[in-house]
Write a structure and sequence with these properties.
Blueprint lengths: L1 E4 L6 H10 L4 E4 L2 H5 L3 E4 L5 H10 L3 H9 L4 E4 L1 H5 L3 E2 L13 E5 L10 E6 L1 E2 L14 E6 L1 E5 L5 E7 L1 E9 L2 E4 L7 H17 L1
Parallel strand pairs: 1-2, 1-3, 3-4, 4-13, 5-6
Antiparallel strand pairs: 6-10, 7-9, 8-11, 11-12, 12-13
């Protein structure tokens, strides 16, 4: 069973449907027991960094998420879920992220050359394959919807980058923690392979 954390963010049901396509049972929940007893945990979401952290804190999910990491439960952040794993975001000055991974979330430069938000398909430059990107080819296309991007503090954690005006860190892996700025559940066969890899990681734990 994979737990999908429900903190009133968008994009939760599309992740659940993608897992179902792969034959993986998932439970959308915010109950600590349901999360901590899962084989793997996914933190999806779209929206604002500060508002999301308020909701996660309000539901008492911060210590639950930290326990997941401490217990080595495979954990996947998607889109806003990636951003929340880091320390801070220019979107919400003064708001602290979960700080599970080192780095900051920055605004994509709005200089008139490229549209912000970044919406649509873009390719991945693979820095190292790790477990999450096994079977994913260089320059594979994935789907993005975001205005802010990651600058990871630990370069060894970065699996892939994407160019969109700036070089963005778009996929990371550190221990049992994985995250994608793009939406694997909306990224056709490439995205399904990434989710399939995550499922396999949960089964090997």
């Amino acid at each position: 069973m994979i737990a999908i954390i429900d903190y009133d963010a968008g994009n939760i049901r599309s992740v659940e449907k993608a897992l179902a396509r792969l034959g993986q049972q998932a439970q959308v929940t915010r109950e600590p027991s349901g999360i901590l007893e899962a084989d793997g945990v996914i933190l999806p979401g779209v929206g604002a960094f500060g508002d999301a952290m308020e909701k996660i804190s309000g539901y008492g999910l911060v210590p639950v998420i930290r326990q997941c990491v401490e217990r080595q439960i495979p954990f996947l952040g998607i889109c806003l879920g990636l951003q929340l794993l880091f320390e801070s975001s220019q979107e919400s000055p003064g708001a602290e992220g979960l700080g599970i991974l080192k780095g900051k979330i920055c605004r994509i430069p709005d200089d008139g050359r490229l549209k912000v938000p970044h919406i649509g398909w873009n390719d991945l430059h693979i820095c190292r394959r790790g477990r999450l990107l096994e079977g994913i080819s260089e320059n594979a296309y994935v789907y993005f919807v975001h205005s802010y991007y990651l600058q990871a503090g630990d370069r060894e954690a970065v699996l892939a980058q994407t160019e969109y005006g700036v070089q963005m860190d778009t996929c990371v892996e550190q221990g049992n923690v994985f995250a994608c700025q793009f939406h694997p559940e909306k990224s056709s066969d490439t995205g399904l392979q990434i989710l399939r890899n995550f499922i396999r990681i949960t089964e090997e734990r």
